[in-house]
């Protein structure tokens, strides 16, 4: 992203058609490697004519002398204090996420509720034009507030934030994504955008908000006002911050759907690259705290102390009272729902990709164009939501139903709108309400004739259009609810068609349709299954829900990538996939290292002038440290540590090794964990240039290395699984006088596109998957 937060598109990673297939199978004996150009390891994402600097994160433990001494000298009390602090932060992440989620829900329900009550008042008096002006004006005002906040104060608050969280947990530094300003704008912007009736949800923003809370707690507050407590400084490193943000993302999903297990599985399946059992327990603890907070506020709101909160806000589409019965013949419509979900989900991803590219061109013209685009979408949405119900025929109320009919309030399953007494407008029931209530209405059970087929088609068509044009505007937005709205529509339609031939309720067909479209677009299965079970509170749905999700994901995977992967590619974030391309097994890391510029190395005791020269003339974030006559690898030193040495002027007048006490007197392990690589404000005198620095105490003596004959595919799996930033290539046999390091692999070097730029002949051996 650029400094304005525009969605920048990288054209190399997403192709619209089938890739060329090689007529013959490749073997290792063929001359596969015809080098075309030098492989660049510069961390840049080329985006059109713009260049975006991409930094990686240091998830690897830096085992230098300081770290080893600190680890050995820690008392049992200090270790217990560190563990207690991690659990305390996990508790605070869950507590604050639950409180903010409650605040957002209360604000949305009350703002949207009073807006709908005012509109209903004018409609009851047959003042339809006045009602339209109030409805449209309120929506435009709320959209304007949300958009201006995003455009002016926090461009990174636009969108769901989930792709950027996924990239961060993969090892990519996403600047300004987790700041205090971003979080505040995300909260207020979500309230405005959702209350404005736009076709977007607050689920994605809640995931981002939970991650922001976790990041701010871990670093002690905003960048300019950090708390410098000693115990909190232990968390000021990428590794612990990653764990906290994982807890925050799970808490966000839990807060959105009141689904603690689903939140944990979402973090595991969708966003986290690295996982372990200790993190599982802390994540589950955070989501449990969220559920307790939400449950407490639900009890308070049920007593009527939350204004117009009612049954909305905290999404809970309870269908536990519905008797779920299905037979072998129901496998046919259930399978059809899964296939439709996979096809429509992949089609939605493809069309949304085109829309986002178009919006990128509009947003690049400036901030005014971003605001105008958001207001145009809001105006179109308001006109459709208010005007289309006039096309529906009034339907008589069913006296056998216990629920009030018709209604003119904020919510209700039978909106009167323009109909006479005793009749209701089914389109108004779906459109003139909040998105949460719209889903609750279409999920309603034991109401087989509530919605007409024409109304369902209009509902489905409109939300397909709104789902495409709304996502991508400069407001906080989530994808979960728009996809649920679309999927529930065709699920309900299929249930209406199958009515005489199936035992499954139409409301359950709507639930299955929503699940299938989410699996077809997002390609999640396990977490989605649990989320829907906790959402609907009906365990009997488990078998058919699993069946639908598996079919939808399989069908969708045969066409294109998931929606979040497409957004990652569009933003130019160098995300490393779990599975390497098949042709990567035909390329060795040694051949990849040969295509790079010569590696820059430093000696164990190095002259200050050489260190300054290396920092000035390169952008490398680490340098191999050699001993002896440059024939022995001592380890790897980070650029940030070299900058810290220069700033502290830890220089020696003679070329010698330092004692342990000397380095511990100048540096602390916590201090070295902080990122500080700004070399511009370091001034070195000419006399200091001739002095020396002993790099041994600050060098990571156990860097990950691979032998030059290892395949790129295997190196990629190692790099991603361990969460590395640098991977050293060493020779298989080190000849006399030969350097012990052939090269360094970074994230950019292992990306398929960058490799193909250096070895274009490999392009013929790519897999033929539609991207």
UniProtKB/TrEMBL annotation:
InterPro entries: CBS_dom (IPR000644), CBS_dom_sf (IPR046342), Cl-channel/antiporter (IPR051280), Cl-channel_core (IPR014743), Cl_channel_pln (IPR002251), ClC (IPR001807). This is Chloride channel protein. Keywords: CBS domain, Chloride, Chloride channel, Ion channel, Ion transport, Membrane, Repeat, Transmembrane, Transmembrane helix, Transport, Voltage-gated channel. It is a multi-pass membrane protein. One of its GO terms (molecular function) is voltage-gated chloride channel activity. Pfam families: CBS, Voltage_CLC. GO terms for cellular component: chloride channel complex; plant-type vacuole membrane. Signal peptide: none annotated. Belongs to the chloride channel (TC 2.A.49) family. The lineage of its organism: Eukaryota, Viridiplantae, Streptophyta, Embryophyta, Tracheophyta. The chain crosses the membrane at residues 82-108, 128-154, 279-298, 331-351, 371-392, 456-486, 507-533, 539-556. Residues 595-654, 699-764 form the CBS domain. It is found in: Membrane.
